[in-house]
Amino acid sequence: MKHIGAVQAVVTADDSDREPTTAELDAIERELPLVLAEVDLLDAQITTLDRVPSEVDARRLRRARNRVLAARRHLANSTAVMLPGGAA
Asked: pLDDT confidence of 18, banded at 50, 70, 90?
């Protein structure tokens, strides 16, 4: 019986194969409200693609945009506080 050996070098774990670090998970958690607000805005925009937006649709779009802006502002302000000395 013939022995079959590996032709390539030892395969090591690639950076893309690893689990997220604690810092990465914390960053995702901080950005999650913004992501959810953007999903709500996208959902509101998709609903109005095939029809003329009604007053309720326009209100929903406006509120979704405001939530995205508020989430971005909150994220920007909290990130600035987290930097050393509070400066960017």
From this structure: confident
